[in-house]
What we know:
There is one protein chain. This protein is mostly helical. It has 9 helices and 5 strands; from the N terminus they run αααβββααααααββ. The protein has helices spanning 2-27, 32-49, 55-60, 96-107, 131-140, 156-167, 172-179, 183-190, 199-202, and strands spanning 66-70, 76-83, 88-94, 209-210, 236-237. It is globular.
Amino acid sequence: MTRFIVLAAFLSSIARKLHTFGRGWIKEARWDMHSWYRTMAYNFMLVMTNTGMRPPEARNLRWRDVDTLADKHGGKFVTLAVRGKDKFRTLVAPHSVAAYLDRIRSLSKATKPDDYVFTTHKGKSAKALYRSLIQSLLKESELLLSSSGKRRSTYCFRHTYATFRLTEGVDVYFLAKQMGTSVLMIEKHYGHITPVKNADRILQGLPGWEPIADGPGDILGSVNADGAGKKPAKPRTKK
């Protein structure tokens, strides 16, 4: 349990530091185009951390692939129809992602349905996905290297997404579907997430246990521009 608490706190502190530093990093741009690219890279990072997309899927994303829907309670969420090399799938994201995409749209010269979402200043597909800018942001914020000494990249945002979702109790089967991978791969890479955190899901239906449903439209633990997400509610038992 202690290991889980340390891990969650560590990831939250990294997310907060990166987002806080990122806002100042944009303001420090020396010229307009530099500011444009930093703003795009920053919002790209927010989209990636809140969707779990693979970089190739983000590269292929077009505006026609983005939609906003509502659940039966009226809670809004974003859907993204993504594609990699040969596979297609639809993933869901918190409504905050709509705001990040709106910022990108307001900056972009390519906003028609068939245009790519992540582009260069000229409106062409950003094939490198702001790689050098992301590396610069990670380096300047002193987050380029992990605790093991491994260099972080745009793929680390997918790892952050998976870890936060698991620590918030998302079922591994649903997470595997969302991320376009297998349950086996999720368990292999994220087996350190302790069952104690997910007690309310594991004990659901057993005598003396009353599970708490998430609120309408709530997607807990999302990473946003103001922090790493909400704290999960504690399970309550019947008296």
